[in-house]
Design goal:
872 residues; alpha+beta; nine-stranded mixed sheet; 29% strand; globular
């Protein structure tokens, strides 16, 4: 193989020893590509970062291979730079390349880069045709000793280690496996650890066919430290009879799409040959969406960051030009920088990012832990070089340091908190100042967040909801970066020592009681990069949304005691989580449950039985709205069930009009509260109505929605997101029932713009105040979304509660709106929703513009990104 030599970049004799960094300016076009470490290196790793004007734009970890010389020749690491689209070739004239944290003493000139034409015939063959890796499955947790090299068995929460003689390079792989399950409820996933501590992990769900076969293509990012197969929930035993892993190239990825959608792929190739790239990509997007295709979340985060996570020079110049016109109203931002597990070197990353800010009005307060002489020396040196940096050494906690900043700044300034190692994007303070200048009443601002591993690679992105008090009570989704106006923080009494580890969370809670919710604003840009091991929301998907520390529970109790209105309490809800339990009145309100139907006794009877006999809440009544049922069995059932004093049957003849049927029943309902219930709902837990009523009786409560499941246990409804597909969609649809959702949102009560009327509870007075369901323009579809948006516009909060769980056989009773008159009616109703609420133009306040608007899974990339990556 042919390799480039790094000493060409630095000059001869350059070297780096353990713990000592080496850096120099180099030409941009000479960095990107494949590199490897020499076989003579004594230790294991090195970390490479590439900077431009203080902004990190590329990173890689190099692992020294421990295998034979042959394997060492084929083991390497790739440096990928985050190049923007459509910028001139001289966009970056020079870049800063740092080689640091070398675990061995070796001249830099012995670190090589593989040349573009240096691939061996064996590599080219593997890229084109692929080859099967030699694997061994080793049981680790709750697994049975294998009977053969490719066979292993295990029970609940099984973990199986995959051992391979080959070094896994980054790229595409095909996984084929045969699994026999009793019963068919296991959900296996492939976990790829990128370091020995499992701090950086990517994950791929291995979707199984009904036969137990797995056949999928995955993108594996390097470096790879370990591979595991986990089963999320496996009732019974999972037998992995065969597991094969094979490296593949772009041709096989395309072939996989062709096998599943030959006409789409053929059309894509046809239009591509004619030079119609947009048409080709549109058709290929549909083909790949049906192919056995899996890209890890780490890979998706990397793709998004490559395209959007940097600031082009042209935009920097525009910002500098705008700043020259800002003669007044230039708020100052103070950052208190504390340490958790960081080292003295961690300060460099944070301070460099502050010094690289385009907006100059900032200050930094470095809090030195007691006895940390190395950190103190480093901090003093930075303070001497930078007048805006102050060192605080005789402080007993973060709250004291934040209060020092409060005392130093004018009331119009803002204070925030960072942990050593956090890095701000160059435009962070500019974006915050720009928002304040546009809305002078803003008092609290927070931004989106990029999560990195120990090497600085972006591995996840937290695109946050707009201000969502209910969600904030159950998890600190704001995390970092958040800044609070000095005057408001002083009015709230300053930062409290009792809030140790959650000072900003505590301040936002208390300050929110002193201001209007419109004075809190999210900046929908990831303006801070934080190490995921220091991320207070969680370190992995399974932990996201779990309870805060004990100190935070005390803070919540204090907040709830001060909050006007009914007094809630905090209860444990299992798995380390907590929930805020809102009280029900001593005399429980009467509830009318409305169930429209036309025949379909097979669905209606179990539904009514669940409402009458499994639902614990009382008092209640059930109104069955009959829309021209004709079947003898249904008519007989109506006569029989009407004998129950809790049930009434109301006739509503004529063409099916879901909105009109419910409006009629509401007029006849005796309850103070009404529940809209589809006839294909099944009750699972007797407490469902009580849980929904806890939110419906709140003064601010609007429509309350439940967590609804498909019969197979997957999520059917986790709240409605307005704007998906230009209309509205169900968040987290098809996710596993036990999945936490995007940063824990599926399992957290929260405000949402809308919930589905398949199971919806609302106060009758509020329902009538907004005109009920729109029966003229929205006879079937979107009338629930319209109702919720009217309630929200009137000032009430629509609430999703995951504590109420039911089964919904979606649209079983009336079918789907795909053909003929139904399709035409659906188009009219969709046009009405868009014309009234601009769902095709405006972003849901509880969603994020950086998340997908075509899918319902809170993803931040789609098949379009994969198409671009494959250069198709």
């Amino acid at each position: 193989m042919k390799y480039g030599i790094l000493s060409d970049l630095f000059g001869k004799g350059a070297s780096s020893k353990r713990g000592v960094g080496s850096a120099d300016y180099v030409s941009a076009d000479r960095i990107s590509g494949w590199w490897r470490l020499p076989a003579s290196a004594e230790q294991e790793h090195a970390t490479i970062r590439i900077h431009c004007d203080g902004q990190l734009i590329g990173t890689a970890i190099a692992n020294q291979p421990q295998a034979s010389a042959v394997h060492a020749e084929r083991c390497g690491f790739r440096v990928d730079l985050n190049w923007p689209d459509g910028v001139p070739d001289d966009f970056y004239d020079k870049l800063m390349l740092e080689v640091f944290e070398l675990g061995f003493e070796v001249p830099i000139r012995e670190i090589y880069r593989k040349s573009a034409t240096g691939w061996s015939l064996l590599d080219l063959t593997a890229w084109w045709f692929g080859r099967t890796m030699k694997l061994r499955l080793v049981p680790e947790r709750d697994a049975v000793e294998p009977g053969a090299a490719h066979s292993v068995a295990g029970g609940d929460e099984t973990r199986i280690r995959i051992e391979t003689e080959d070094n896994l390079l980054p790229g595409w792989y095909r996984i084929r496996a045969s699994m026999d399950k009793q019963p068919l409820s296991a959900t296996p996933r492939l976990q790829v650890a990128h370091d020995a501590e499992w701090r950086s992990v990517s994950e791929h769900i291995l979707e199984m066919r009904s036969t137990g076969m797995v056949d999928t293509m995955v993108r594996i990012e390097g470096p790879v430290n370990a591979l595991h197969i986990d089963t999320l929930i496996a009732a019974g035993t999972t037998y992995i009879e065969e597991f094969r892993l094979r490296r593949i190239g772009t041709p096989e990825v395309m072939l996989g799409a062709f096998r599943h959608a030959p006409r789409m792929v053929s059309a894509a190739l046809f239009w591509r040959l004619l030079g119609k790239k947009v048409r080709a990509r549109n058709r290929l997007r549909s083909a790949l969406s049906s192919a056995p295709f899996s890209a890890s979340r780490l890979h998706k985060a990397g793709l998004w960051w490559q395209r959007h996570g940097f600031l082009p020079r042209s935009e920097r110049e525009l910002i500098r030009g705008e700043l020259r016109n800002w003669k007044e109203n230039r708020p100052c931002f103070a950052i208190v920088l504390t340490f958790e597990e960081g080292t003295a070197e961690a300060i460099d990353d944070s301070i460099r990012s502050l010094q690289g800010q385009l907006y100059p009005e900032w200050r930094a307060y470095i809090v030195v832990p007691q006895g940390a002489e190395a950190i103190a020396g480093k901090a003093r040196g930075l303070s001497e070089d930078e007048a805006r940096v102050r060192v605080i050494e005789e402080i007993y906690g973060t709250a004291d340091a934040l209060n020092v900043a409060l005392a130093d700044l004018p009331e119009a300034g803002f204070v925030g908190h960072m942990i050593a190692g956090d890095r701000l994007m160059p435009d962070a303070f500019f974006r915050l100042a720009q928002a304040v200048r546009g809305a002078p009443d803003l008092a609290i601002l927070y931004t989106d967040q990029a999560l990195t591993d120990a090497a600085g690679r972006v591995i996840d992105l937290h695109f946050k909801s707009g201000w969502n008090e209910e969600l904030f009570l159950h998890q600190d989704y704001i995390d970092r970066l958040a800044v609070i106006r000095v005057g408001l923080a002083r009015k709230a009494g300053g930062y409290r020592k009792v809030a140790q580890g959650a000072e900003v969370y505590d301040m936002i809670l208390r300050a929110s009681l002193l201001m209007q919710s419109s004075h809190i604003q999210r900046i929908a840009r990831p303006l801070i990069l934080t190490d995921i091991s220091q991320n207070t929301v969680a370190r992995d998907d399974a932990a996201r949304g779990q309870a805060p520390p004990d100190s935070r529970l005390i803070l919540l109790s204090d907040y709830l005691a001060l909050r006007p209105g009914p007094k809630a309490e905090i209860r444990a809800s299992g798995e380390g989580r907590h929930r805020v339990v809102w009280p029900l009145p001593k005399n429980r309100p009467f509830v009318s449950l409305i169930v429209p139907t036309r025949d379909r006794l097979d669905l209606l009877k179990p539904c009514i039985d669940g409402l009458l006999n499994k639902t614990e809440y009382s008092p209640k009544e059930i109104l069955i709205v009959d829309n021209d049922s004709r079947e003898t069995e249904t008519i007989s059932y109506f006569k029989e069930i009407a004998q129950d004093p809790r049930v009434r049957v109301i006739s509503c003849p004529g063409p099916f009009n879901y909105a009109a049927m419910n409006n009629l029943a509401v007029d006849k309902a005796r309850g103070e509260y009404i529940g809209l219930i589809n006839n294909d709902i099944e009750v699972l837990r007797g407490s469902w109505l009580e849980e929904m009523m806890r939110h419906a009786v709140r003064p601010e409560g609007g429509a309350v929605g439940a967590k609804l499941l498909y019969p197979d246990g997957r999520i059917q409804h986790g709240g409605v997101i307005c704007g998906l597909g230009g209309l509205a969609g169900h968040g987290h649809r098809f996710a596993h029932e036990a999945a936490p959702g995007y940063f824990g949102r599926l399992n957290a009560p929260q405000y949402l713009s809308a919930v589905t009327a398949a199971c919806l509870v609302v106060e009758k007075r509020k329902f009538l105040a907004v005109g009920g369901l729109e029966a003229e323009q929205l006879k079937v579809a979107f009338n629930d979304v319209d109702l919720c948006l009217k309630l929200q516009a009137a000032g009430w909060k629509n609430i999703y509660t995951p504590e109420a769980v039911l089964v919904h056989h979606e649209s079983v009773s009336r079918g789907h709106d795909l053909y003929g008159e139904k399709a035409e009616r659906y188009r009219r109703e969709a046009a009405y929703l868009q014309g009234t609420w601009r769902t095709d133009k405006e972003v849901d306040r509880y969603y994020n513009p950086n998340l997908t608007h075509t899918e319902e899974d809170f993803s931040f990339t789609d098949v379009t990104e994969v198409i671009r990556e494959l250069k198709i």
